[in-house]
Amino acid sequence: MGGYKVTGFIHRVGAIITFIYFGMHIYFLFKKRKEKSARHLFSGENSMMFNKRDIKEFIETIKWFVGKGPRPEYGRWTYWEKFDYFAVFGALPLLDLAD
Questions:
Q1: Domain-located, residue 28
Q2: How many domains are there within the chain?
Q3: How many helices (H) and strands (E) does the chain have?
Q4: pTM confidence score
Q5: pLDDT band at residue 35, thresholds of 50, 70 and 90?
C-alpha cells in the first residue's frame, strides 16, 4: 500500500469522508424532523428505533430457523438492519474520541 505514510493518509481521507456523510445524515434527520414530528421519527411506523415489533419478529425468526413456524412478515426495517445502523451510527462518534 505504500508504507505507513500512504496508509495513514488513506486512513485520514477515509475518516474525513466518513465524518462528512455522518454530518450529512444528521442534517437530513433534522430536516426530516421539520417535515414530520420528532415523535414520528422515534415511534412512527417506519422508525429506526427498536420497538416491541422487533422483539416479536426476532422470536418469530428463531422459530422459523428451527422449523417451528412460518417465515415472519417484516416491517420496513428489520431488527438486524436497525442493529447494523446503530452499530455504525452509535460507534462513529466514539471512534472520534479514540483517535
A1: yes
A2: 2
A3: 4, 0
A4: 0.63
A5: low
